[in-house]
Amino acid sequence: MPAPIDAEDSRLFREAIGDVRPLDPVAAPPAGAKPAPHPRMLEADEAAVPGELLDMAFDPALLEVGEELGYLRDGYPPKLLRQLKRGQFSVQDDLDLHQMNAAAAQASIVVFLAEAKRRGLRCVRIVHGKGLRSKAAGPVLKGLTDRMLRRRDDVIAFASARPALGGTGAVIILLKS
Question: Which domains does the chain have, with CATH numbers?
Answer without folding.
Answer: 68-175 (3.30.1370.110)
